[in-house]
Amino acid sequence: MIRIVIALAVSLLVAGCQEDGPSFSTQTTEGEMDYTLIQSPGSDYISIQVAWPTDWAGRADVNQAAPRTAIDLMLAGGATGFPPGEVVELFADLDAEAYLDVTVDHVLGQLTFPPEHLYQVLEVANAHLASPTFDESWFARVRDGFEQNVVESRAQDQFLAFEAVRWAVFGEQPIRNALSMDEPGLFENLKLEDVRQWHAEFITNAPQTVVVVGDTDAETAGTAVDLLFASLPDPGDIAPAPFAADFTPLRILLHRPDAQATTLGFVGQVPPTRMGQEFEDLMLLDALGQGDQSVLFNAVRTELRASYGFSVGFANYSREDRIFYMTGEVEGSKLADAERVIREAYDAFRADGPSGSVADRKVPYNEYFSDIWEYVVDQGQMEIQSVLDGYPVGRSLDILGEVESVSADTLAERLTTAFPPASDLIMVAVSPDADALPGACVITAPQEAMDC
């Protein structure tokens, strides 16, 4: 076990607190790492959230399967002093949880554990970050498993529909391959050296943001942070290249003669979360397509007399390129009617806004956020995403104020300024009938969408 005693971290700024509730402060560890501390009274766990910057998805000269393969291998393939696979059992015994993810913009890490197991957990976590084994046989196992998951996903019509949209939006840019993993030979050409290179460049001692949440003090939190990043290398220069996203409205029909069902989807660009009004967005999406009282549910049931529904959601291509989507399976012979009905219902919703009480729409959000500080992982994830969006530290502790600020006027304004009209959406359908949508750009493979 690592036994390192670190002096009390220096508090730079105590920026806010609530009596008998959580408080936040900006801290610096003995090892001179800055982090945000959210002290959450009564919590049984400490959660550390980390975000490292990355520019891998903007590079044309690297293998885009390396990041995901690397993080899976780091978690499963062992490290100095720890045989492959042992970390799962160790963390189960310690009541701890570790998680790594990668997006276009960041590598995201999460480590959650009871305070009494701090030293044991940090020893294991640091070893897997700083000195993973990267065994050749485990590399092949992880790579092949990842490839199989991608193959299975790409056999689904809905996945291919959104892959076609990414071809239309990004074309040959590396970000498209990073999101779709569709480059021929991607996995066959992936080498262990690609994984080692990615790890060396991005798992460093200089994350962009660190957040610690728990019923703990600055001394304990600072100890945990310094232990986690011990022996990690200094970073190099990371300058993410801007991506050129083209959301020109299109009507695309992907013809798949063997398709088991007909799929219809719409994609539109919306402002990034850093620009605010996230709760307006969420409440509007609830009204548009969540549940049996939503606009799209009623439109499909009433006008098409159909039993199927449409799902809606948000997604990030990157932090700056955010989309909303509407998608669902439809009856093949009614594809053209379904397109018309969805477009008309959506435009009517933009014009009229959601029905019912705004106060009622706030209820589930008020219930969830009123005690989120009791859940260290949720609190930490919300805080780190907020900081990455450029908001002040501690915003996550006053999120109920943002919910309260939503009104009928802000919802109406958001609909007309942030959600594009139906005529500006990219529409994509997958059908066994090449003539199902008159006037659509008919393609037989997703990559052909960039020529529509």
Write the layout of secondary structure elements.
Elements: E1 10-17, E2 23-28, E3 34-39, E4 46-53, H1 66-76, H2 86-93, E5 97-102, E6 106-113, H3 118-130, H4 136-154, H5 157-170, H6 174-180, H7 192-202, E7 209-214, H8 218-229, E8 251-255, E9 262-270, H9 278-289, H10 295-303, E10 311-316, E11 322-330, H11 335-352, H12 358-369, H13 376-388, H14 399-404, H15 408-418, E12 426-431, E13 441-443
Parallel strand pairs: 3-7, 8-12, 8-13
Antiparallel strand pairs: 1-2, 2-3, 4-6, 4-7, 5-6, 9-11, 9-12, 10-11
Helix pairs in contact: 1-4, 1-7, 3-8, 5-6, 9-15, 10-11
Question: Overview of this structure, please?
Answer:
With 452 residues, the protein is of the alpha+beta class. It has two domains: 3-229, 2-Layer Sandwich (Cytochrome Bc1 Complex, Chain A, domain 1); 250-446, Cytochrome Bc1 Complex, Chain A, domain 1, CATH 3.30.830. The protein is 39% helix and 19% strand. The chain has helices at residues 66-76, 86-93, 118-130, 136-154, 157-170, 174-180, 192-202, 218-229, 278-289, 295-303, 335-352, 358-369, 376-388, 399-404, 408-418; strands spanning 10-17, 23-28, 34-39, 46-53, 97-102, 106-113, 209-214, 251-255, 262-270, 311-316, 322-330, 426-431, 441-443. A seven-stranded mixed β-sheet has the order 1-2-3-7-4-6-5, with helices on both faces. It has a six-stranded mixed β-sheet with strand order 10-11-9-12-8-13, with helices on both faces.
